[in-house]
């Protein structure tokens, strides 16, 4: 039986994917419609071309997205979600919603914490 608390459990690889902000953002974007590489790069601010390529390959390897090359000059590549990827996107989207809803409270807590640590150091 899988046990994510065990150091050698393969479940941790899946949890690593879920914990990767880029992977989550990509899954959520391609959940609604297939997207081309450059469209993903333009939409996800802050991701480098190299990182986007690496994450897309990992998601494809894990069976969460599929890659389709379109015979154009130059070749156009489009990514779409698989049924397995859709189940993961549906599972992580509430976390995105929670983060957006609670951002202000988390930032306030961080400021209070930092201020208290600064006062203790003084």
UniProtKB/TrEMBL annotation:
A single GO molecular function term of this UniProt record: DNA binding
UniProt KW Disulfide bond keyword: no
Q: What is this protein called?
A: HxlR family transcriptional regulator
Key words of the record? DNA-binding, Transcription, Transcription regulation
Q: Name one GO biological process term.
A: regulation of DNA-templated transcription
Record's superkingdom?
Bacteria
InterPro entries, A to Z: ArsR-like_HTH, HTH_HxlR, WH-like_DNA-bd_sf, WH_DNA-bd_sf
For the keyword DNA-binding, the answer is yes
Domain (HTH hxlR-type) spans 9-107
